[in-house]
Amino acid sequence: PREEVAYVTCTYRSTCIDQPDFLATVDLNPRSPHYGQVIHRLPMPNLKDELHCAGWAPACGCFESGAAAKRTKLVLPCLISSRIYVVDVGSQCRAPRICKMIEPVDVFWKCNKGYLAVTHPLPNGDILIANMGDPSGNAKGGFVVLDGESFELKGNWENECEVPPSGYDFWYQARHNVLVSSAGVVPKVAGRGFNPDDLKKGIYGRRLNVWNLSCRSLTQCFDLGEDSLPLNVRFLHNPDAAEGYVACALSGVVFRFYKSCEANNWAVEEVIRIPPKDVSGWIMPKMP
């Protein structure tokens, strides 16, 4: 069925507006007099969270049939505060409300993680959230896990000795027992905004990581180039597909990753390269 509403995370970071971030509900019904308008705002109870990539709770993960999927909870990780909000969108889809909040101190003490970025439901019903750093803002990859029913913080997902140097986005294909994650940035440095002086200093990530999904172990790493900054990871929208793509924000390159002929091994290849553009009035003469 056609979507009736959309939920959009909205942040006031770097706007000089001292108000909490909010979740906007947008009317998508073309027959509605409010079509295309924000019909509800759900303000967060704290300032300077920086809501990031919202994700659905496990009832609508890619492992479940569309007919059975029920989207009742939305998980909102916060990039700056490291807080996690769980929003009830099932009771009143046009006026959602916060039903649970996990404080940063719990994430810091239980997981030694911070700067939460992207969330997806796992095949077992739990919720996985990728992190970009440690509580002090140093780069640190990996994931934290929420219980899919109680939304309690369970701890870290990956094996302790296999934490990548940075992290950001991820996706998985359960039928191939694989999870692929991208690199990120050093939060305490890059959080101030893009600065050309930070190039060639290891501030911006360069790795693509391949994980054994069931064992939660890191099996392969690909170096995509200095300051490439691989971010968004997407498999093809086919649960049997053994290939996907990752876009690199600073190098302007899109890589294809795919399962090679060797058993359980993966490979990468460059498929798109967008040349930088000559610009004026920016901090660099060429914009990636």
Automatic annotation (TrEMBL):
The protein's annotated pathway: Organosulfur degradation
Alphabetical list of InterPro entries matching this protein: Se-bd
GO biological process annotation, one example: protein transport
Protein's cellular compartments: Nucleus; Cytoplasm, Cytosol; Membrane
Keywords of this entry: Acetylation, Cytoplasm, Membrane, Nucleus, Oxidoreductase, Protein transport, Selenium, Transport
Protein's UniProt keywords contain NAD: no
Membrane topology: Peripheral membrane protein
EC top class, as a word: oxidoreductase
EC number: 1.8.3.4
Any Pfam family matching the protein: SBP56
Protein role: Catalyzes the oxidation of methanethiol, an organosulfur compound known to be produced in substantial amounts by gut bacteria. Selenium-binding protein which may be involved in the sensing of reactive xenobiotics in the cytoplasm. May be involved in intra-Golgi protein transport.
Family classification: Belongs to the selenium-binding protein family.
Name assigned to this protein: Methanethiol oxidase
